[in-house]
Design brief:
By secondary structure, the protein is an alpha/beta fold. The protein has a single domain, classed as 2-Layer Sandwich (Nucleotidyltransferase, domain 5). The strands form two sheets. Strands 5-4-3-6-7 form a five-stranded mixed β-sheet, sandwiched between helices. A two-stranded antiparallel ribbon has the order 1-2. A hairpin with a 4-residue loop joins strand 3 and strand 4.
Length: 154
């Protein structure tokens, strides 16, 4: 069996990994852009059952850097937990379109984050991306805001 990576490359599918797709809701933000920044990630089973939530303050950064840091955290979590199928939901149209290859990554500060995300996605196996409205991303938004509050205190 094989899986398709968003770039169109076919990758081997390891059947020893946990079966079933997981969903990661991600959000990042900065107060001031750039300003105190953080991200939040909520990982669920496909049926919506919570698996884990986490957030991190990242100091001073831009909104887009915080969004990518959220993506990287979700991808690293999935890889660490040996998941081969991950569906990422984000309210950042820029991030989603860049990861799908529809938008170029012109910002030099985002290029290494994007490159690392592509590598992690390939290592996981099947990673898909979906742009969702903010109302559907409320849990990750709450986590990101908590992390931004923590970044203010740094």
């Amino acid at each position: 069996m094989t899986s398709r990576e968003p770039s169109g490359q076919t990758l081997p599918f390891d059947t020893q990994r946990p079966q079933g797709r997981i969903v990661a809701y991600i959000d990042g933000g900065a107060r001031g852009n750039p300003g105190p920044a953080g991200f939040g990630v909520r990982v669920e089973q496909a049926d919506g059952t919570l698996i884990e939530e986490f957030a991190e303050s990242i100091g001073v950064a831009t909104n887009n850097v915080a969004e990518y840091r959220a993506l990287l955290a979700a991808l690293e979590w999935a890889k660490h937990h040996d998941h081969a199928q991950l569906h990422v939901r984000s309210d950042s149209l820029l991030l989603v379109q860049q990861m799908l290859g529809n938008y170029k990554v012109k910002n030099a500060g985002l290029q290494p984050l994007h490159a690392r995300a592509r590598v992690l996605a390939r290592e996981i196996g099947r990673v898909t991306f979906e742009h969702v409205g903010r109302s559907l991303n409320a849990h990750a938004d709450r986590l990101a805001n908590t992390a931004m509050d923590g970044a203010k205190q740094l």
